Amino acid sequence: MIHLETDVAIIGAGGAGMAAAIAASEAGSRSILLDRSLIGRGGATVMAQMTVAAAVGEQTEDHWTHHLKDTLAAGRGLCDERLARLLCEEGVAAIRKLQEWKVGWAAEDGHLKQVQAPGHDRPRCVYVDFLNTGPAVSKTLRTQVIRHDLIRRVGDLYALDIVLRDGAAVGVLAVHLHTGEPVLVAAPSVVIATGGLTRLYRRNSASLNMGGDGYALALRAGASLIDMEFVQFFPIGHLAPRLIGMDPIMWDPFRYKLGGRLLNGNREEFTQKYGVADGGRYQITRDQATYAITKEVEAGRGSPAGGAYLSFEHVPEAELRKAFGPIIDKLAKNGIDLTKTAIEVAPIAHYHMGGVRVGTDMETEVANLYCAGEAVGGANGANRLSGNAITEALAFGFVAGRNAAVRAQAAGAVGDIAADAAEGLAMLQAKGRPDAPNSAALIAALQDLMQDYVGPFRTQEKLTHALAALRRMRGELGDTPFGTGAAYDAERLDWYDLRTMLTVAEAVTMAAIARTESRGAHQREDFPGQDAEWEVNQVIRLAGTGELTLERRPVIREPELEAAS
Amino acid sequence: MSQTARLTVQRGAPGQAHAERYDVPFEPGQSVLDGLRWIRAHRDPSLAFRFSCINANACKECMMLLDGKVIYACTERLTDGEMRIEPLGNKALIRDLVTEIAPPDERL
Ligand SMILES: Cc1cc2nc3c(=O)[nH]c(=O)nc-3n(C[C@H](O)[C@H](O)[C@H](O)COP(=O)(O)OP(=O)(O)OC[C@H]3O[C@@H](n4cnc5c(N)ncnc54)[C@H](O)[C@@H]3O)c2cc1C
Ligand code: FES
């Protein structure tokens, strides 16, 4: 067993985790920034391609209160208004900080270029060309992180549990993937920055590491989750032909620039049948497009791979070249010539609005346990504005890191935590099951189940089927890890992932069953329309019995904002 | 139309390396990473290899050797025929196709 010791233990080195580490260091605290993958490479931040929203007011006059108004409107009455405000207000400083660190936001005529994404009342979204926003943000933060001597970076370390003493966090139990050895990171404060859960779905924009680890870590530590039913689907994720070397959400910016026609399997325009004539001009919202495509497929009019066609065939080649830049050549390498072929698209799971409940200091209900980034729930309510997620990761990361540092300095060293971690350590040392089923196939089955039964359009019947199946799978998984726990034991890793994914999938499904209305990203075909009675949040906890419990909570409003509007 | 890649994959811990063969059905356009993931779900879940981003070619974790040449498994396509897959030769072997690729100051 390996013992490490620090002031702030930060789980996950995406945008939020790296921002937290920098802020902790600036506040004078040491940190260990750990990740199950490589530092700055494992999650969504490095994969983001589009834009980042903040009221920096460079393209046109703007103020964070305008951004907040749009964020609250998109959240359909469910945003924790304090967190939404923090996102919009602190987001401005966060984007400026990145600018200072030379991230390379696109600029023209002496000001940053800002584009208007759907749902924003004005051009507000900065970006790095072409499709390079996430890699640039990641690289810039990593360069800063490396400059801080107080930050220790450790990759290939998989966090398994928050270690508690008297109900407060005192560190992290992790496993070193390269040796299989248990690692204890003793720390008087801990930050969960593990990102979202979209790997739960078959069609997703997720990396391997986005199975919702932070939600399960928080639940097992005694913290609660909020808004778990709200999974955002991105309507035109790439489906076919197989496109490699590019992210499946890549088509959106080109639709902004060029339109692009959505066609069904018979090559007819269809969105007008669902109330929105698109006319190739990208007027349809994300929810409407997701609905229209799903319904065409259900009616047997899908494209061959089970989605819709997206066609740029009517756009002159020179215009395509201007809009797509070097991407045209990458597409050519994939055998795709947009002047001659329509590609196939379908809704894919892309972001999760829900997550760990925190206050404005990013502390969870468990003392000394903080959370930041997509892992946090509440700021975006029932739906997220495009561009808000990276802002959220950065702004919340800085806040969490600063506060976790202050707490660590007040609390002081925690000493040896081996006794506190005894239960988790015992599980790690388990011998393994000889009759284990194929772990990779189990994960695929879970993803199929979530896609087909807890997807963008839900019914009581489908959801209850899913819940029963998830509980059955939990039984099948059992309490004894698969594999032997040797160096890079892929089956054991899957078992840990399944333990997390099943818990988190159950949280999503339970909350979706209870919410008998349609709001934002949660659409119930058996309860169409928003119901004023349901302007409440749902909160989930893990009871002592090992079962999840659900309760309703009034939405947290910001009285000051109410008065101002 | 489905084709078949005949993969010879190096397996095992350092000092116990050996080759195993897998026939992998695929649709043209699919990546070597798709093929390795297919093997895990359909033949042997213990096969170990590194990857994170799957599509974006952003994480750069999936480097390995194909017929002796360094590739990203996620951007290299499966082909109808023999393919020899090995771990990077210039990095310490952990197991199967996994090698120590993290920068030295980011290791435990
Ligand atoms: C393809 C794609 C494109 C996107 N485009 C945009 C966009 O244009 N604009 C926008 O605003 N948002 C976008 N988003 C959303 C946005 O990128 C994310 O919400 C945001 O980057 C999340 O940052 P994060 O730091 O919270 O999490 P991540 O960046 O996901 O980082 C989490 C880290 O935690 C690690 N981790 C997870 N579990 C564990 C564990 N158990 N132990 C140790 N480490 C762990 C992961 O390996 C990962 O490195 C996009 C998302 C995707 C997937
Ligand atoms: S899987 Fe990320 S680069 Fe290949």
UniProtKB/TrEMBL annotation, chain A:
UniProt keyword terms in alphabetical order: Flavoprotein, Oxidoreductase
Annotated active site: 286 (proton acceptor)
Domain Fumarate reductase/succinate dehydrogenase flavoprotein-like C-terminal: 445-558
Cofactor(s) required for function per UniProt: FAD
InterPro entries: FAD-dep_OxRdtase_2_FAD-bd (IPR003953), FAD/NAD-bd_sf (IPR036188), Fum_R/Succ_DH_flav-like_C_sf (IPR037099), Fum_Rdtase/Succ_DH_flav-like_C (IPR015939), SdhA/FrdA/AprA (IPR030664), Succ_DH/fumarate_Rdtase_cat_sf (IPR027477)
GO molecular function: oxidoreductase activity
Protein's UniProt keywords contain Flavoprotein: yes
Start and end residues of each FAD-dependent oxidoreductase 2 FAD-binding domain: 7-389
PANTHER family noted in UniProt: SUCCINATE DEHYDROGENASE 2 FLAVOPROTEIN SUBUNIT, SUCCINATE DEHYDROGENASE [UBIQUINONE] FLAVOPROTEIN SUBUNIT, MITOCHONDRIAL
Name the UniProt record assigns to this protein: Succinate dehydrogenase
Organism name: Oceanibaculum pacificum
From TrEMBL, chain B:
Region Disordered, residue ranges: 1-20
Lineage: Bacteria, Pseudomonadati, Pseudomonadota, Alphaproteobacteria, Rhodospirillales
Family (UniProt): Belongs to the succinate dehydrogenase/fumarate reductase iron-sulfur protein family.
GO molecular function, one term: succinate dehydrogenase (quinone) activity
Superkingdom classification of source: Bacteria
PANTHER family: SUCCINATE DEHYDROGENASE [UBIQUINONE] IRON-SULFUR SUBUNIT, MITOCHONDRIAL, SUCCINATE DEHYDROGENASE IRON-SULFUR PROTEIN
CC cofactor: [3Fe-4S] cluster; [2Fe-2S] cluster
Succinate dehydogenase/fumarate reductase N-terminal domain: residues covered: 7-101
Protein name: succinate dehydrogenase
A single GO BP: respiratory electron transport chain
Enzyme kind, highest EC tier: oxidoreductase
Listed EC numbers: 1.3.5.1
